[in-house]
């Protein structure tokens, strides 16, 4: 595992974005179409490698290993700009290297913009939207300390254990430096838009638990010391009273547009979710009674299927972007549609309908709080879960609604899309589409309807 706080030697390299025809060679329509597809595939590969070099999370989602020359090119840009903030970890820019990430995204966007519209226009659009999503993510993660839990989780998710004491020492210095920046941001932030609230403090504490398990080995003394200091600072944030209702919809709406393709007004979205919630409760109650499911059995099963985390993807032949693992904002929806697509008997159908209901209820919690309509307690009283859950489970749902509102709202939006026809049929068709923003899924699934619809 190679880590460097600032690369000492960097070699420049360049990449072509398209190949033109040889001089004097005739180009008929089929040949030009073939050249267009080939040019797109070449640029698509370059863009995915660019993104993988500046964010290991994208490398994992796209299953791309950036070659050394891509890393050198990214590092060269940092050297030329005298950027002291960049850190190269395990062959990629670490998530706190915000300016280097921004340069990588800008470079990728330029390459896509230079591509002419052609036979792969829909894939080109999805690739462009992938870059736009990551620009919004970067904007969100710059807002320390509020974004600290996301950044710490990014470290955990992409962690590679050091192979020897020297690598461990490098990793220790790097982690100590990044944790110190989180602590300093916590101490210096008086802006409500970026300061840690109680819920995000708990989210960060959970993320630190996962990081602590990784570094509780010899060689990480500095990182452990900084981790303890961050926890001490978290106690103050955790002691603050719960926030009163206030709107953050302007910010949330921008993220929902980028990651989900949602453009509805919050009031329209709230009405649509409320209607879906009522309809699903009625359907689920009938299905649960028919399947003979008891409340305890149902509650235990639902805990395994409501807001599932972890990689979720579908292999879509001919599309690298659609075959990527879903981003965190669409991950719960991906797991949900897989559940719905696999229901075979009355019991599985009842469980799926109840899970769909609870995803919508929690989406309503997130929306009501984000638009300033209510506090989380008021939202929970208005949008009840299908069956009572354990306190720890409810606390997890609350943190998702408050700290990850786009993912919560996205799951509710996915339910609305599935409910526009036969859910099982539409879930299977959606899996054939792969991971796409929800406006794309809604459009491409538009022709699919259940009998009688």
Question: What's the arrangement of secondary structure elements?
Answer:
Layout: E1 3-4, H1 29-54, H2 56-62, H3 68-80, E2 88-89, E3 92-93, H4 98-113, H5 121-141, H6 148-157, H7 165-188, H8 198-215, H9 221-238, H10 249-260, H11 266-291, H12 295-303, H13 331-341, H14 346-370, H15 376-382, H16 391-403, H17 405-418, H18 423-433, H19 438-444
Antiparallel strand pairs: 1-2, 2-3
Helix pairs in contact: 1-2, 1-4, 4-5, 5-10, 6-8, 7-9, 8-9, 8-16, 10-17, 11-14, 13-17, 13-18, 14-16, 14-17, 16-17
Number of helices: 19
Radius of gyration: 23 Å
Please indicate the percent range of residues in DSSP E strands (runs of 2 or more). Answer: under 5%
- Give the count of structural domains: 3
Q: Helices and strands, in N-to-C order? A: EHHHEEHHHHHHHHHHHHHHHH
Low-confidence stretches: 1-33
Global mean pLDDT: 87
Main sheet strand line-up: 1-2-3
């Amino acid at each position: 595992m190679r880590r460097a706080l600032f690369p000492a030697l960097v070699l420049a390299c360049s990449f072509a974005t398209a190949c033109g025809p040889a001089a004097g060679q005739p180009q008929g329509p089929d040949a030009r179409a073939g050249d267009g597809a080939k040019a797109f595939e070449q640029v698509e590969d370059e863009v995915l490698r660019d993104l993988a070099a500046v964010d290991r999370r994208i490398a994992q989602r796209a299953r791309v290993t950036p070659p050394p020359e891509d890393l050198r090119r990214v590092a060269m840009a940092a050297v030329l700009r005298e950027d002291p903030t960049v850190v190269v970890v395990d062959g990629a820019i670490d998530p706190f290297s915000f300016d280097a990430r921004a340069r990588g995204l800008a470079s990728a966007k330029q390459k896509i913009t230079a591509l002419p519209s052609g036979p792969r226009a829909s894939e080109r659009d999805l690739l462009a939207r992938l870059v736009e999503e990551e620009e919004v993510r970067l904007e969100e993660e710059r807002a320390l300390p509020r974004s600290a839990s996301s950044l710490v989780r990014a470290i955990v998710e992409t962690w590679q254990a050091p192979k020897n004491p020297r690598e461990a020492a490098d990793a220790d210095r790097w982690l100590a430096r990044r944790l110190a920046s989180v602590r300093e941001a916590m101490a210096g932030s008086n802006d409500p838009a970026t300061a840690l609230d109680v819920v995000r403090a708990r989210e960060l504490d959970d993320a630190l638990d996962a990081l602590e398990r990784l570094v509780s080995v010899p060689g990480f003394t500095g990182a452990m010391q900084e981790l303890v200091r961050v926890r001490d600072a978290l106690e103050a944030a955790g002691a603050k009273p719960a926030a009163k209702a206030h709107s953050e919809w302007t910010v949330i709406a921008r993220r929902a547009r980028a990651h989900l393709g949602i453009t509805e007004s919050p009031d329209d979205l709230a009405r649509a979710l409320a209607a879906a919630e009522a309809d699903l409760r009625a359907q689920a109650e009938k299905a649960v009674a028919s399947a003979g499911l008891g409340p305890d059995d149902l509650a235990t099963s639902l805990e395994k299927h409501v807001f599932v985390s972890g990689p979720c993807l579908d292999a879509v032949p001919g599309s690298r972007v659609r075959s990527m693992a879903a981003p965190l904002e669409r991950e719960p929806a991906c797991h949900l549609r897989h559940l719905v697509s696999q229901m075979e008997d009355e019991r599985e159908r009842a469980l799926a309908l109840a899970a769909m209901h609870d995803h919508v209820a929690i989406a309503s919690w997130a929306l009501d709080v984000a638009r300033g309509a209510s506090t989380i307690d008021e939202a929970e009283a208005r949008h009840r879960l299908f069956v009572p859950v354990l306190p720890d489970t409810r606390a997890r749902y609350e943190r998702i609604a408050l700290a990850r509102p786009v993912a919560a709202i996205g799951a509710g939006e996915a339910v609305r899309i599935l409910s526009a026809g036969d859910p099982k049929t539409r879930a299977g068709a959606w899996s054939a589409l792969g991971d796409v923003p929800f406006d794309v899924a809604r459009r491409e699934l538009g022709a699919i309807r259940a009998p009688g619809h």
